[in-house]
Design goal:
This protein is an alpha+beta fold. It is 46% helix and 22% strand. It has helices at residues 22-36, 52-59, 65-84, 135-148, 200-204, 252-258, 264-298, 305-325, 330-337, 341-368, 375-389, 393-399, 402-420, and strands spanning 2-9, 13-21, 93-100, 103-111, 116-117, 125-129, 151-155, 165-174, 177-190, 212-218, 232-246, 300-301, 423-427. Strand 1 and strand 2 form a beta hairpin. Helix 6 packs across helix 7 (264-298) and helix 11 crosses helix 13 (402-420). The two termini are 65 Å apart.
Length: 442
């Protein structure tokens, strides 16, 4: 391969012209002849026995050109790209300029990684939520632990009340006629959960074990079973058992049972520390999000659409892999959600645009700041991943390229640099931020 010309075009495109040697092209044509001669019918010759010159005379000199070029083009194009030093981000548009006695001249136009300009990435202003932990938040966390360690006991000395689990038999009737799906035995119903028709649970409360009683309700007008929607119904019920979750006492023994601490005070202090760490991590993530927002808004680059298309495709593919890990697949998901592959690509496109811009701007900052990643850092990251995924380091290296690890570490270092150079002011959390962390609620 001889690189003839390399030229930067507008809109992040690049043109390459290169020549494939005549001997290499001729050898490829010969291979194409040998592969295809058995399927070419030439009068006067048995199938597969016609000489190449006869076939070319009959069907044209270029009869084997397409197959020959398909054979040798990828390697020659890759060599031209490597020699030119460009970074393609999409498949090229290939044109054959000429086929002469001295070889094949090829023109390739391809989208490349765009030039990026970013200014003002030092000193970005950001706000960080001031981290504090209240006693109520600690109580809330510990209450969850108590609930997870609750002991279920049977209640026999009082009627059922809100918060109890009532074990009931029931059968529903509309106008005196039993309806489909309205009967069950031994059903556990958490009173106050709102899982049954409005008004049902309230009428179970107040009854004792062994009671047989009627529950009168009206189905919601938007009920999923149209034949029952808006109708009055009577459920004949029997209360078989009442169960209640008994929470463990909040004392030193509880602390010993659920932690490595000997006293409740130590356990509370540790819980407070963990909540603070979680909040600090969340606050840092919010700051990082603000910094990335600024960088994405101020990037100056002519980014080609194929970069966004590829990233959107990657997001969809990753989602498909997560679905498969749960025993589902993308086609089934699309069917049940009424989406198409194209509509899903369009849905994830804003995320794809942000991710592409983020990578480009951070890569440019890393270049401007001469950020380097050492082999030792790459190995340390492999070790961290192996521990996190509980896999051997060698197995991780089989599926993750060192170059990808190096790139990710370089981008992370760029984020850390921007963060360290930012002007960050703390502010008190909004009123709703004092609410309990819903991620830990049942």
């Amino acid at each position: 391969m001889e690189l003839i010309k390399t030229e930067k075009l507008e809109h992040s495109r690049h043109e390459l012209q290169f020549k494939i040697a005549h001997d290499e092209f001729e050898a490829a044509c010969s291979r194409a002849y040998n592969q295809n001669k058995g399927s070419i019918n030439v009068p006067g010759f048995r199938r597969g026995k016609a000489p190449r010159a006869i076939i070319e005379k009959m069907y044209g000199k270029g009869v084997f050109y397409d197959d020959a070029l398909n054979d040798i083009m990828p390697a020659n194009y890759d060599a031209a790209v490597k020699e030119s030093g460009i970074s393609p981000v999409a498949q090229p548009e290939i044109d054959i300029v000429s086929i002469e006695d001295d070889g094949v001249t090829v023109k390739a136009v391809v989208y490349v990684t765009p030039e990026v300009k970013i200014e003002g990435y030092r000193g970005i202003e950001a706000k960080k939520t001031k981290v504090s932990v209240t006693d109520d938040e600690v109580d809330h966390e510990i209450d969850h632990v108590r609930e997870h360690n609750a002991r279920e006991i049977e209640i026999t000395d009082r009627p059922a009340e809100n918060g109890d689990t009532a074990n009931i038999d029931y059968e529903g009737f509309c106008d005196g006629v039993a309806f489909d799906g309205g009967k069950d035995t031994g059903h556990d119903l958490k009173l106050g959960s709102g899982s049954f028709i409005p008004g049902f649970e309230e009428q179970v409360a107040g009854h004792s074990v062994g009671d047989e009683f009627d529950v009168n309700v009206t189905f919601p007008t938007e009920y999923h079973a149209e034949d029952l929607a808006g109708k009055e119904a009577v459920f004949k019920c029997k209360l078989n058992a009442i169960k209640h979750d008994e929470l463990p006492e909040l004392d030193d023994e509880f602390a010993k049972d659920v932690s490595d601490f000997d006293t409740l005070a130590e356990y509370r202090e540790d819980m407070k520390k963990k909540i603070a760490e979680r909040k600090e991590k969340s606050a840092d993530a919010e700051v990082e999000e603000q910094l990335i927002d600024y960088l994405v808004e101020h990037i100056d680059a002519d980014i080609p659409d194929p970069m966004y298309d590829t990233e959107a495709e990657n997001i969809v593919r990753d989602y498909d892999m997560r679905l498969r890990s749960q025993g589902l697949d993308l086609s089934t998901y699309l069917k049940y959600t009424g989406q198409t592959l194209d509509s899903m690509r369009e849905q994830v496109r804003p995320s794809a645009i942000r991710q592409v811009k983020t990578r480009l701007v951070l890569a440019e900052i890393a270049k401007l700041e001469n950020i380097e990643v050492t082999p030792e850092q790459v190995e340390a990251e492999f070790a961290r991943m192996a521990e996190s995924y509980q896999m051997e380091v060698d197995k991780i290296k089989e599926v993750v390229a060192a170059a990808d690890i190096e790139s990710d570490l370089r981008l992370k270092a760029a984020v850390d640099l921007v963060k360290s150079a930012a002007v960050i002011t703390e502010h008190e959390p909004e009123a709703h931020e004092h609410d309990h962390d819903h991620a830990h609620e049942d």
